[in-house]
Amino acid sequence: MSAATQNRPVRDEAYNFAYLDEQTKRMIRRGLLKAVAIPGYQVPFGGREMPLPYGWGTGGMQLTAAILGDDDVLKVIDQGADDTTNAVSIRRFFARTAGVATTERTTEATVIQTRHRTPETPLQAGQIIVYQVPIPEPLRFIEPSETETRTMHALNDYGVMHVKLYEDIATFGHIATSYAYPVMVDDRYVMDPSPNPKFDNPKMDMCPALMLSGAGREKRLYAVPPYTRVVSLDFEDHPFEVQKWEHHCAICGSRESFLDELILDDAGTQSFVCSDTDYCAQRVIAQEGKQ
Amino acid sequence: MYVAVKGGEKAIDNAHALLAKRRRGDTSIPELSVEQIRQQMPLAVARVMTEGSLYDEQLAALAIKQAAGDLVEAIFLLRAYRTTLPRFCASLPLDTVDMQLSRRLSATFKDVPGGQLLGPTFDYTHRLLDFSLLADGQFPGPEQQEGAALQPCPRVSGLLAKEGLIKLEVDNDEPVADITRDPPEFPATRAQRLQALARGDEGFLLALGYSTQRGYGRNHPFAGEIRIGDVQVWIEPEELGFPISIGSIQVSECEMVNQFVGTSSEPAQFTRGYGLAFGHAERKAMSMAQVDRALRAAEYGEEVVSAAQQEEFILSHCDNVDAAGFSSHLKLPHYVDFQSELELVRKLRKSAPAPTTQEDGQ
Asked: N or C terminus: fewer CB in 10 A for chain B?
């Protein structure tokens, strides 16, 4: 265990391990098994109220609670960063209620809970990444009714989604979706890759790690098993492409990573830094080692 | 630079310390006790218990104190606590006919068996600020009649039923779902709907019920009966085989009576909507009854055209713990998604032709 992995915190014995009771965790794991068996399918589950607000990661937290074991090493990120306030809050929650070791190193983590990003460092076999999902239904903003969208999924009826993407091209010349960009999982279900930027979509394809998604308020979970085909929807003449920046990271100099924009002064001077803080920090360490 | 941009543990701890200080207020003023809230803000306690779906006056009062009077936050606190509680039994259905009434009224008949009983109510108070409350006072209540007893109060809807004028409600003997344990599914059963409405936000249901009175899914309601009082809770543990009473709780119950013109197969008769809430929560019970009736549109072959009649819309949006959570999550960092949108908007603007200036007037 490296210095980046914190010493095991002391578990608060007033709560069950990882907060939820064992029956609830078992119920969630049953749901997860179903989700893994039907990649991309949204499994309804009896979501519980968590002591954090809906919309703040309660779905992801319930999945993490259900799969966390005593010897797991947990990493929590929000917007790619380990030190954003909500990531700090969720990491502390599991340090307190499960007493598990936590880390900021992507490579050291066995479970990574994330909001809005997939780490830049490629995930490995044996790792599990848990996405916090606000709206699990990729068709929701085309068809608000759950009854309708469930039927559309059942019938493999995704015409409206292609029409939406086509209308974007007709109107703007591009597909005007930059995050929560829909993907086709294992040639069967259209899935919302959480509100990740589309930059992260290619990382999901044939990923060696198990990917789980939990939506607490909507009481849905879904999964992409390791080495599953995940294809971003596109057209032959308008192929899917990811964002590119004209800038590089002001800290580590990366030109490959997803960059956050900072406004530095009243004149609007911009600076760009990696959204993935661990990736950025590891690059800086590597560069210092070379010098 | 980096540290300034990202939040940290220290900031979170400080924010919570500030909140605790703010909640306490001026320390030269005595601290509010949980028991004071429980005794002197019973309507707030009732709302928190109802929407928190946990009957515990002390914990509800504690939640109100902790939330500094923010009732939606207090409801959330109680809900989160409720998750951790074991369930050992489901009670038998409450028998509200035998309620120990503190208030009972019917707007449909001038007099009914058992009579009308105003009880403690804001109704007919003139809403003039009572400046005497700025000082301490004694409020002994009205004179009480020695040996007065409550007359039996049969249900008003039962009186209509005797004449066959109101649609009978029959127990379909189906197992009752638990919306706090099972994921929602549509169409929902009426039991699932009533559970969701009972936990639903009072303001949301009030507005929807109101909308039906203004013509959006119009179905004129009459307050058939409102009953507020204490009712015994009975359970029947498997190992005993007979029911035992575990205590009593205060509830507010409302049965709305609505017109129904009938169809080719059914004669004209009245129908009803039902509302039930913990404690003295009349507005909530009435709103719930109105929305319950509106949601039965399909059952009565009425055209579903308005918000108050749309089951999926209402059940998906009536819970204020859901709604407040998802609304407040907008405060969380969205740097990454916003950056994606920035990139997209810049790209779209680059490729679009420059907008023509409108110099020649509007």
From this structure: C
pLDDT, one tens digit per residue, over B32-80 is 999 999 999 999 999 999 999 999 999 999 999 999 999 999 999 999 9
Q: Which residues of B313-325 are buried (b: 16+ CB within 10 A; e: fewer)?
A: ebbbbbbbbbbbb
Integer Rg of chain B from CA = 26
Residue located via tokens 């307190």: A96
pLDDT higher at B144 or A43: A43
Give the residue-averaged pLDDT of A166-175.
89
DSSP three-state, residue A209: coil
| Type and span of the H or E element at A189 | strand A189-191
Low-confidence ranges of chain B (pLDDT < 50): 1-5, 361-362
pLDDT of residue B151: 86
d(CA A73, CA A1) in angstroms, rounded, equals 10
**Do B351 and A145 make contact, defined as CB atoms within 8 angstroms?**
no
Tell me what ipTM this predicted complex has: 0.85
Burial A53-77 (b: 16+ CB within 10 A, else e): bbbbbbbbbbbbbbbbeeebbbbbb
Locate the DSSP E strands across chain B.
100-105, 221-235, 244-260, 269-278
DSSP three-state, residue A260:
strand
Q: What single DSSP character describes residue A16?
A: B
B92, two tokens: 């038998």
Averaged pLDDT of chain A: 94
**pLDDT tens digits, B173-205:** 888 889 998 998 899 999 999 999 999 999 999
pLDDT at res. B36: 98
Cα dihedral B180, B185, B186, B187 sign: negative
Task: Write phi, then psi, for B107 (nearest 5 degrees).
Answer: -95, 5
pLDDT confidence of residue B362: 45
Q: How many CB pairs under 8 A join A and B?
A: 147
Q: Which CATH architecture has domain A22-138+179-232?
A: 3-Layer(aba) Sandwich (3.40)
Contacts of B263 (CB under 8 A, 6+ apart): B301
The distance of A197 to chain B (nearest Cα, Å) reads 6
The SS3 call for residue B234 is: strand
Work out whether strand A259-263 and strand A230-232 pair parallel, antiparallel, or are unpaired.
unpaired
In this structure, what are the phi and psi dihedrals at residue A16, rounded to the nearest 5 degrees? -65, 160
Distance, CA of A282 to chain centre: 21
* Catalytic residue positions of A, numbered: 40, 249, 252, 274, 280
Touching B: A residues 12-31, CB under 8 Å? 15, 19, 21
What pTM, to 2 d.p., does this model score?
0.90
